[in-house]
Amino acid sequence: MARLDFWFDFASTYSYPAAMRVAGVAAARGVGVGWRPFLLGPLFKAFGWDDSPFNLHPLKGRYMWRDLERLCARAGLPFVRPAPFPQHSVLAARVALIALDQPWGADFCRAVFHAEFGEGRQIADRAVLAALLHDHATDPQEVLAQAEAPGHKERLRAETAEAQRLGLFGAPSFVTPDGELFWGHDRLEQAVDWAADRASASG
Predict the structure, then answer these.
(1) In the prediction, which pLDDT does 203 show?
(2) Residue ranges per domain, the chain?
(3) Based on the number of CB atoms within 10 Å of its own CB, is 203 exposed (0-12), middle (13-18) or buried (19 or more)?
(4) Which of 11, 27, 41, 86 sits most deeply, having the most CB atoms within 10 A of its CB?
(5) Alpha-carbon distance 103 to 147, whole Å?
């Protein structure tokens, strides 16, 4: 089966519509999706940035918020601008890595994005994450405790290091098995087509 890795940070604005659409777009072309949470912060620090580029460049930020409103309206997605921005996404990403070991992992990731960008909730809040886990995990507090254990902290660091190794510089990003990189929500369909076409050609 053709495959595509979807790299995202829960704090990333354009990762929200991508997360809500990627499964359907990929399924239509027979492409499987690997959900890969990571942190943009270390990448930005390597560029010499101490904040989101949308905060560092106000004109770009104003455009992004309006663009995201248009994208969400077109896709039928609710949108509430989260405050503060960017949200602190470390704990949510650690929990997601645990969740993605289970069949409900992608559903949990979509729920986090919906809570943040669809409802304006604070995804750094343990109570918010526990409530989102409640629909899937038998013991949300146990999952949260696992997420804060040293092994899972290191797991997220390793994922972020892998993102850097692959040359990622933003989110969402899509990487195909042959190493092709596509950056941005607007490259979702192109990435899926690339993965499907290469799999068909090699099969």
Answers:
(1) 64
(2) 2-202
(3) exposed
(4) 11
(5) 18
